[in-house]
Amino acid sequence: MLSTCSLLIVLVPLAAVGLALINTGFGRARGAAHAMLSSLAAMAIAAIVYALVGFSWEGFPGCPAHQFVLGGTSWNWLANEPFLMRGFEWNDSPTTLAMLLQIFTVGIAALIPISTGADRWRMRSTCISTVLLAGWSYPLFAHWVWGGGWLAQLGSDFHLGHGFLDAGGAGTIQALGGLSALAIMWILGPRRGKYPAEGGIAAIPGHNMVYVLFGCALIVPGWIALNSAGAMLFIGAPISHIPLIAATTLLSASASCLAAVAVTHIRFGKPDASLCANGWLGGLVASSAICCFVTPLEAILVGLVAGILVTAAVEVLEVHLAMDDPGGAISVHAVAGIWGLLAVGIFPHIRDGIAPLQLGAFGNSGQFLAQVVGIATLLGFILPMVYGLNWLLNRIDSQRVERRGERQGMDLYELGGGAYPEFVIRGDE
């Protein structure tokens, strides 16, 4: 089992590569190299910070942790592992594999806000924000969910189903990354020219939809590997569940993409490639929550709802709330991730499917409530915390590039060269 899990973890970086391509394609041509380099830098920083500091806060079930007693219940709120990997044993244990997996997944979470900050987010600010995410925000919530923390103990302590369940990181990776993107969007504001003073909305299409669609295809094997490894390490799924996980992951993405095709065709008369790509990603995000708990038919239903929600959320945020999110990261990762978490407590078959995974016998009637508590924690605590940390960072050093830099393009202004030197890339007049 552990050797199979190791092989799956090796494939997870494909998800990060696909996401980096998507981020680049959704931005402008004059910021393509900046977006790709920012993605690479974020992954590198996230891996180092998480390994040296983050995992010490997260830990793994059974490891030392800080706890306090309130109301007669012991609340496990933070791990108590040595920093800088002192004394860490590198072997084939679940603890080692969980750390290795999350060296990659914390990078995926860090990539999500880059899409939202396209064409205006400084690289140095991206790097510092990634330090905050990998060193504190991610490991804190991950401990509560995957490290034996209080959300995972809702089943044993309060008889709420099996506690908060998140097999592949729909909340821990995706929703947290999406809410971080929301915080960054609030701080940065919209791109210049997106909402003209005379009213209306200016279309700023992504410069390369081929990058976006290729990224959507490349991301699939990495996502299947992520869901499978996460289910094995954090939920206790056996190897025999991998075919089911692969099927539910792909079917959810497929149904979500087709739902986006149908919705955009009805809405605009023709399918919209960018929204269909968002639908595909939204289905993958939702699948991370339900991948080992539903039947293939239920996965299709979850995907259909995800596709409708994502396309609707993109329009609501951009048109009605004047939120400029170039890649739709908030809709894809936060909205679809929250929907997937809710779906864990909605479908009756999920309750039947939990028993073979040996999650305990605490009853299932409170599973939906356990999921709601986890979502409320994301929205009511993690989002304000992430926003507050980035707000302080912005007060110290403005995260948005100067007006001249945005007009000139992030490639030339911050890197001194463009991604496409053989072409003339138009700047803002």
CATH superfamily: Ammonium transporter AmtB like domains
Main β-sheet: number of strands, strand sense, barrel status?
2 strands, antiparallel
Count the helices. How many? 16
The strand order across the widest sheet is 1-2
| Large-scale geometry | globular
CATH class: Mainly Alpha
Strand content: under 5%
* CATH topology (fold) name: Ammonium transporter fold
**Radius of gyration based on Cα positions:** 21 Å
CATH architecture: Orthogonal Bundle
**Strand segment tally:** 2
Order of helices and strands: HHHEEHHHHHHHHHHHHH
Give average pLDDT, whole number: 91
Structural class: mainly alpha
This entry's quaternary arrangement is single chain
Helix content: 55-70%
How widely separated are the two ends? 59 Å
Topology:
Layout: H1 2-11, H2 13-26, H3 32-58, E1 65-70, E2 73-79, H4 94-116, H5 123-146, H6 154-158, H7 170-188, H8 209-235, H9 242-268, H10 273-290, H11 296-320, H12 329-346, H13 348-354, H14 367-396, H15 403-408, H16 410-415
Antiparallel strand pairs: 1-2
Please explain how this structure is put together.
The radius of gyration is 21 Å and the shape is globular. The protein has one domain: Ammonium transporter AmtB like domains (Ammonium transporter fold, Orthogonal Bundle), CATH 1.10.3430.10. It is mostly helical. Helix 2 runs parallel beside helix 4 and helix 4 (94-116) crosses helix 5 (123-146). Strand 1 (65-70) and strand 2 form a beta hairpin. Strands 1-2 form a two-stranded antiparallel ribbon. The chain is built from 16 helices and 2 strands.
